[in-house]
Amino acid sequence: GNETGNEINNEIRSGIKNTAYFSVSEVSHMVDELRGKFSDAWGKQMREVKSDVLLNKILGEMERLGFIKKEEGLVTVFPAAGKFSGRYPAQFLEMNEEKGK
Hints:
The chain has helices at 2-14, 24-38, 44-48, 51-64, 90-99, and strands at 20-23, 68-71, 74-77. By secondary structure, the chain is mainly α. Strands 1-3-2 form a three-stranded antiparallel β-sheet. It starts with a helix and ends with a helix.
């Protein structure tokens, strides 16, 4: 469940000092978990797009920004990725908790 997402997030956070490596399937699983938990806050297009398309959009943008390199089923996460984070508003998180997400 959430443990996998937390493990990957912690690994990426530790990437502030180190490069981290994940299989594409690990990243796909994390994106699916995040989608299940936070998609109510996403735009319609991102909520409705197929999972593989969403994953490719995210990885493509992260690669364009220089945060990752994707090749042959492996995602290399560079230290710069660990320096950025975002948060959902507290009100949204409280609503999600009430819904049991």
